[in-house]
Amino acid sequence: MGNGVKESAVRVREDAEAVLPSPVNSKSDHRQVLSSLLSGALAGALAKTAVAPLDRTKIIFQVSSKRFSAKEAFRLLYFTYLNEGFLSLWRGNSATMVRVVPYAAIQFSAHEEYKRILGHYYGFRGEALPPWPRLLAGALAGTTAASLTYPLDLVRARMAVTPKEMYSNIFHVFIRISREEGLKTLYHGFTPTVLGVIPYAGLSFFTYETLKSLHRAPLPPEASLQELHPSRWLLMLPHAFLRATGTIPCNVVNSDHS
Predict the structure, then answer these.
(1) Which of 253, 151, 147 has the alpha carbon at shortest distance from 201?
(2) Please, are residues 55 and 96 in contact by the beta-carbon 8 Å criterion?
(3) 235-248 pLDDT, tens per residue?
(4) Where do the Solcar repeats start and stop (predicted)?
């Protein structure tokens, strides 16, 4: 009888250990979340700063009646530099950083969490998700990040397309919008933004996860040179093209609403 009680106690303890998260796993999870937040924030900041002049030019063309061409875009950049100075090409980039850093951090971290949740739900723990859950995880991550940071996106667009005399800094934009137009204006145009984010983020992370799984997949020795040929990676370019062109209408509507 004593042995039976001991065996029962051992089984109860083992079951409890299996259910309750260990301190080591909990610490590892926190470290992984922090790593995703920092990596996403840094990646977003560097990428957006590098393309800030082109992004500002894109917004100006979207909200104006000018017909876009590479020549007109170059002229716009050149005359902006002549009339307002070199740093004016990055006008609104501070507002972009205030928005992009939390957006990218939340998006990357949320993507990892959604992958984990969907992996548990579909029974793919520790494995690559199948295509549809992979697409869903990216779309949910983008929607979560956009919902939490959308007012910052509107402020960025306002600063990019208005004269610098109108708004001195991002706090000035928030104050003027809340006083003159109401707080609801901060989420004006949110619907077209989300409609653009869902396919954009979904296809973006889908492509990333697909390429990552292809890169990690073991290759037979006799096929390694053929499989690693650059043409294999060029096949993924249509995904990026469709992702970008498919969300342009939503970006135009969002800029008009801003």
Answers:
(1) 147
(2) yes
(3) 445 544 544 554 45
(4) 31-117, 129-214
